[in-house]
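Running this now, will post back.
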Amino acid sequence: MRIDAISVIPQVFEGYVGASILGRARTRQIFEFCAHDLRDWTHDRHRTVDDAPFGGGQGMLMKPEPIYEAVEAVTAFDERRPHVIFFSPCGTPFSQAEAQRLAGEERLLFVCGRYEGMDERAYELADSVISLGDYVLTGGELAALAVTDAVVRLLPGALGDEMSARDESFSDGLLEYAQYTRPATFRDMEVPQVLLSGDHAAVDAWRRESSLRRTALLRPDLLDSADLSETERRFVYDIMSHEHPEGEV
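Update: finished.
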């Protein structure tokens, strides 16, 4: 996979993309990453990428001309057409399912906004518009890094252990089960004995129950779309009924 990002501060990407799991995956050529300076597609001596909004208002908006030129130029750097992604509070909330879908693309191109936003006409270039949540960031760079991280770890070979991504939160529509490591006793807190038993079937059953319990208590909104058996649905309903004794679950 090739990933490109267009930004007015492209230097912020390298430290994260070059480190840890992403850095190792990049070294092994599991993916390519290149950040591009939007100002390279401006034509005035001040390298201007923003202007005041028509109709007045606070702040400045990113101009459409350099964005269009940048996307067209970066697209031409590789014969594979990129899936172009913009970020906006108006976008579709990002999810693990969307990360899995994007991991199937050959090439991604992020366009990172700044200031008060960008000229609405720029969004005509987008194949996807993504929102990370109901809050405002200074720019799209952090969002692009978050999506890059979520997508790259799903690429074959990126994590080393192929089961790691499959066991994580949201991979099956639920939160991940609770996990423990040494020591078995810490400040009078004990690791559940089943995890020390060596009984793999019992461990798997405990982990599934832990996943169901955590999801029911912390993210019950996920349960509607989760693939659960009738027994599991009764189990989570019972947990939620005890959490909400008046039955408002």
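The chain is about 35% helix and 15% strand. More later if anyone needs it.
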